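lol ok so funny story. i was supposed to be doing the assay writeup but got distracted and ended up predicting the structure for this chain instead. priorities right. anyway since i did it might as well share w the group, maybe its usefull for someone
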Amino acid sequence: DRNNTTLKIYLDLSDFISVESANFKFVPEYGNESSFDMEFNDDGTDGDSLAGDGLWTASKIIANRKYPFKADLIIQTDDGEEIFENISNNLRLRPSPKITDFHIIWENGRQDRRLNSGERARLAFTIKNPDGLNWISSLTLRSIQSGSLNRELQLNTYIPPLGRVENPDFYVLIDASVQSDSIYFMLSMDYDQHHMNIIHSMPITPWVPAEIKNDTLQVEVINGLNDMLLPVIADPTQLTGHIYKVSFYRSSPDDSLFWQLSDKTTNTIMFDEPWNLQQFYNEYPIVDGIEWRAPNTGYGIEAVVQVADANGPLPDNYWDSKGQPFQGNNVWHSTSVATDSILFYLSSGGVNAENPDIYLAGFNANNQQDTIFQYNNHDFEIRFGYDDDTILYDWFENHGYEQQPISVWDIGLTKDDPSDDLRMLTGMYLPDTMNSFTGFSYNDPWIPYNASGWLYARRPLDDQGNYNAFYQDITSDILTKDWWDHSEPALQRIIFCHYYSYYSYPKLPQNGTIIRLITRKHFLDGYEYTIQSPSAEPDQLYDYPRKYKLLPNYPNPFNATTRIPFEVPKSGKVNITIYNILGQKIVTILDREFTKGWHSIDWDGRNQSGRELSSGLYIAVLSGSGQTASRKLLLLK
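and the output, tada:
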């Protein structure tokens, strides 16, 4: 009955003296569903063994309830009434959701929709609501493998009574070991204030791919940046030897960025879709045996490194581990090179210590994404002692300007080519504790070292907003600020902090020092790449299974239905029969022909006549072609 729940309760009240009556009062823990009572009896009926033996029983059929209930026990004796509150809580009085039809929709190995050793796979499924009365209004599902949460899913639609939900975006990620023949993961489900855990298992097919598996293919850049597109061999057996082109484009400046993969050898478009990291979750499209990785690194600054000191460019042995990929020494919340006579680091002003880099991490805090794309992957530099015409204008309080040896530059795409460097407009903000940019009476909110005023920079849009126009206007007798509308905000709230400022007078970094701000790179409109695929190479896929085998059922223990996976080494008739612990046959749940491979069968805990079995340990026995296999099943009511 999908609309009703049957309750059967047994109470041992033999320790109580002169019990006259016993009653369970059920009340909802959430919502406003109706309460109900259950009267117990000790008269030898309704499953009670003997009248007057102190074992009380009650049974009742109720309409399914949506939310959990709790129960109070009320016992009436000669001495009066005793109430035991919350003797049971979080009671589920409805069928629980069923998660079924697991199937692979993406895998980064052999493209055979089987879980092969060493693969990561995306596993989709169906959620069914077996309740004939109640909707599922809220559902959160967490997948846990090897004790770690790897994905959390929030259902954004209701499931009607007896309804189902299938959505390719509703999936879990699993990683198959190279050393096991099966995988186990747990699905933790919260729905309508209920909670349950489901253990699922899948067989793993042993697979030995060709050695070129996981190799990154060489990319020829037609237009764009190197080391951004990463085509990685996923399935060597599907390689074609063809030439491919990957293009990024916008139909108009306001449209989303698309990317297109085309096979130039056959003149075929393989896919053409929006480029969006959120839709991939680091599982990229796999076409012709190649995983086409086009990562989005996020927005803002990737690294802040010192690339030169007073003596010139830093040698290789001055690059630290974090600055190594960027050919410098990390100075974001980390000390400058030890040879500096003035040790410094960079931080952000005006933020608390829990989030010290929020303003430096973006260019324009009010519109990070648009600003990042607008700068076309350019990097920036802060240079000390560039020339004498370096000024910082206080464009917040209009307190005038200071001459400071600080200039800020957009250095374009090529850090070693000064021809595309663009000088930016430099501004400042002075906190209340300071009367000049180098007063160093302000403290870094991250660690309490003395810090400078806050440095800002705007990027020129045209000649009316360039540095010369800015400098001439600021140093003139009449300030027009026309350059403001011909420039746009870029960097902000950068502060220079002085190490050991308790023991020496704080100063700005020495002239000749250069600090480079490396931006996170993005694919842009017009980027194009070509890739030559190698030819296919064979792999070794073991022809498993090799014997009849019962895999662990799930869930186990179970209280309604359990799924029993099994392996068949060759096509033929297979029988699965359930026995009790005395060896007595209970039910044959399967007896028919099967093809070679992995299969499963559900058992609902009933005997051959369709009657529900009592709690206990049962044995499943599989037989086929003269071979047998068995497994224990624990039924709990």
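Helices lie at 277-280, 368-374, 467-474. Residues 353-373 have pLDDT under 50 and may be disordered.
back to the writeup now i swear
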